[in-house]
Amino acid sequence: MKKLFGIKELVKEVVEEEGAVSVVKEPQYVKEPQYEDTLNAERVRFEKLAGMMFRRLEKSIKILEAIEASVDEKVAHFERLLQMADALNYTDCGQNRRYEVLALTGKGLGIDEISNVLGVAHGEVELILNLNR
Predict the structure, then answer these.
(1) Are 96 and 126 in contact (CB under 8 A)?
(2) Of 129, 123, 70, 80, which is closest to residue 100 (Cα–Cα)?
(3) What is the distance in angstroms between the CA of the first residue and the CA of the last residue of the chain?
(4) pTM of the predicted model, to two decimals?
(5) What are the backbone dihedrals phi and psi of residue 108, each rounded to the nearest 5 degrees, phi first?
(6) pLDDT (tens digit, 9 = 90+) per residue, 38-67?
(7) Residue from 100, 125, 105 nearest 115 by CA
(8) What is the pLDDT of residue 26?
(9) How far is residue 21's CA from residue 14's CA, in Å, rounded to a whole number?
(10) Would you tell me how many other CB atoms lie within 10 Å of the CB of residue 65?
(11) Cβ atoms of residues 8 and 29 within 8 Å
(12) What is the CA radius of gyration of the chain?
């Protein structure tokens, strides 16, 4: 008997018995439609489930990316606040205003931030920086 991809084919065997010829037929094995329908239904169900899982993963990834961006923004803001706090601790009221402005510029603070930290006018900070160039 032949097997083709695991499914038996209908095969005729001719047997000679005592001069007589008889034909023996094997029963035909055919996939049952119910079995195929069940497999197709399971495949469709699996594909839907996989699709739902991928959509959930994509949403989770987008949420995590938004959280990461927010954290990065907050870290940058926090670092800026630390620079300003460090600058406040570094400066003394009795020091030369020019030296204070240059020290804060060296720490990476901008004109507006230096003006706020030292409590001086924006124009005064600009003048000191322009004179130092």
Answers:
(1) no
(2) 129
(3) 99
(4) 0.41
(5) 100, 10
(6) 888 899 999 999 999 999 999 999 999 999
(7) 125
(8) 54
(9) 7
(10) 10
(11) yes
(12) 42
Identity of the residue numbered 122 = H
* pLDDT one-digit tens code per residue, 76-121: 999 888 887 776 665 555 457 888 888 888 888 899 988 888 888 8
Element (H, E) at 95: none
Q: Can you give the residue ranges of every domain in the chain?
A: 10-72, 91-133
Listed in sequence order, the residues at least 6 apart from 46 whose beta carbon sits closer than 8 Å to its beta carbon are: none
At residue 30 the predicted structure's pLDDT band, cuts being 50, 70 and 90, is: low
Angle at 62 between CA 56 and CA 67, to 5 degrees: 125
Tell me the CA distances in angstroms from 36 to 1, 28, 43, 126, one per residue in order.
Answer: 25, 17, 10, 82
Q: Does domain 91-133 have CATH number 1.10.10?
A: yes
